[in-house]
Design goal:
alpha/beta; nine-stranded mixed β-sheet; 11% strand; globular
Length: 501
């Protein structure tokens, strides 16, 4: 995710969602079960997007969240704090607040450890905690609030239920706008969970609120140096699975531990890795067969056991093996090694996906949730005075919010999608898959001038108008081309209007 806080009030569709929810709260003021669903959505409209990190126990959720933030702030052990929902949001000063189920709040001590954060519940029992709210001064938390959740399918059904309750999969209001779902191999109950979340968030049938991460990707290839390539192949197969595509807009392989190691690599780590790289290769290779061998006291390498314990804890055996190989290949310093570890981990692609699918389109996701909630209210109490006007407003917003159609079409794009293979990459880019700015949509450098952007937009518009009118195209392809045409028309109109338009 980019380290820039979006003006949520200016996001596409945000104003319409705000007015719609205000009107609905007024219409249904005397229907408590409806207002209980609408009010949390309205209260969150002016906050950053909430992205929940969800998965089974030991899927690597907290490690991935730490990698996204670039600091160790989420607990990764099996302590009591991993059994409650925790929101991590940007704040100028570190702060931890415990919120009880009755809404009462109290501050908890902020304990820094090795530059990160150590959480505890201050004596409270996990079942009494609705959530923890952590304010942390990290630029990575500006675009979105990240939510760490208890593991699904936990031995404690109460622990798993906290995640279900927060995300509203049992017909409550969702506490997050989007989900990053971690899995080793999607199970039927995982897909059912994602389907329920999409239903509750107003995105049923469009896959726009979920991204799946093939977590701990380095373990898929049994720790070989090409393990991440093997994981990428598995992710591509899963992406093509119709059952997975139904509930997830993408499947990405990510090694959270490798990503976090790269983002927190220290000069001392590099010095130790360089010493290992200069040692006898056969000796180091034998050490790195297992964590136990690597940390034996008697091994003949110029790195102390204490340092080796720290390395294997922070990088894992695969990470140490890869880092030593990269240093031997000539990476000169800690900065270069850190960048390469992050690149290979898959984190950068996940960050890009979160930006273009979630944070840049936060207003659109909020609009979808608002529309769904108001439609549910209309179904529950259709005869309420003012309901007819609300229904008309819902229809108007759906017609005028072109970004909803873009997201739905992006979710369906792929090898078996509606676009011809030769046009699919261009279509996805024009729909905003590489970013929603004009240059990103047109595939041009960010410094490209307005006249050149407008000329390129004209060219794309003409090509897609022809595709939409192709008499040999089937209905799905023609309809998809029409959506791209409308995107090109909107892009061109914005460019011709200029900065003041």
């Amino acid at each position: 995710m980019t380290a820039t806080a979006p003006d949520v009030r200016a996001l596409p569709g945000a104003a319409g969602a705000r007015d719609l929810l205000d009107a609905a709260l007024e219409v249904y003021a005397d229907v408590p079960e409806v207002t209980a669903r609408l009010r949390p959505l309205r209260e969150r409209l002016d906050e950053p997007l909430r992205v929940a990190v969800v998965g089974r126990v030991k899927a690597g959720k907290s490690t991935l969240l730490n990698a996204l933030v670039g600091q160790r702030i989420a607990p990764t052990d099996a302590g009591e704090c991993t059994r409650v929902v925790t929101l991590y949001r940007h704040g100028a000063v570190p702060r931890v607040v415990l919120q009880a189920h009755d809404g009462a709040r109290r501050s908890l001590p902020v304990r820094r450890v090795d530059g990160g954060l150590q959480l505890d519940l201050g004596g409270a029992a996990p079942e009494d905690v609705a959530c923890l709210i952590v304010d942390w001064p990290s630029a990575a938390l500006l675009p979105a609030t990240l939510v760490d959740t208890p593991g699904l399918s936990s031995l404690s059904t109460e622990t798993s239920a906290r995640t279900d309750d927060f995300l509203g999969v049992d017909d409550g209001g969702p506490g997050a706008d989007a989900v990053v779902f971690l899995t080793r191999q999607p199970q039927a109950e995982d897909l059912a969970f994602l389907r329920a979340f999409q239903e509750s968030s107003g995105a049923a049938g469009t896959q726009v609120t979920t991204v799946t991460v093939l977590s701990r990707a380095d373990e898929i290839g049994a720790g070989r140096l090409d393990a991440l390539e093997s994981a990428a192949a598995v992710a591509r197969r899963l992406s093509a699975d119709p059952a997975v595509r139904e509930v997830s807009s993408a499947v990405l392989p990510v090694s959270g531990l490798l990503a976090l190691a790269g983002r927190t690599l220290r000069t001392g780590d590099f010095v130790a890795l360089r010493s290992l790289a200069s040692a006898e290769p056969a000796t180091v290779a034998a050490m790195l067969l297992t964590a136990d061998r690597f940390t034996r006291p008697e091994v003949a390498v110029p790195v102390s056991r204490e340092v080796r314990l720290s390395l294997v804890e922070r990088l894992g055996v695969f990470g140490v093996r890869l880092a030593v190989t990269l240093v031997r290949a000539g990476l000169p310093d800690a900065g270069a090694l850190a960048d390469e570890l992050v690149r290979r981990s898959g984190l950068a692609e996940l960050q890009r996906m979160l930006t273009v699918r979630f944070t840049e389109r936060g207003g659109v996701l909020r609009t979808a949730a608002a529309l769904r909630a108001v439609e549910e209210a209309l179904e529950r109490a259709p005869g309420t005075e003012g309901a007819g006007q609300l229904r008309s407003e819902v229809e108007r917003i759906r017609l005028e919010t072109a970004e909803l159609a873009e997201l739905e079409l992006l979710a369906r794009s792929g090898p078996d999608g509606p676009f011809p293979p030769v046009l699919r990459d261009e279509a996805e880019r024009l729909l905003g898959d590489r970013g929603t700015g004009p240059a990103a949509r047109l595939g041009l450098p960010g410094t490209t001038g307005g006249d050149a952007l407008a000329a390129a937009a004209h060219e794309h518009l003409t090509r897609w108008q022809q595709a939409a009118a192709d008499p040999l195209a089937d209905r799905a392809a023609a309809d998809a081309a029409e959506v791209v045409v409308r995107s090109c028309e909107a892009l061109l109109a914005d460019l011709e209007a200029g900065p003041e338009g």
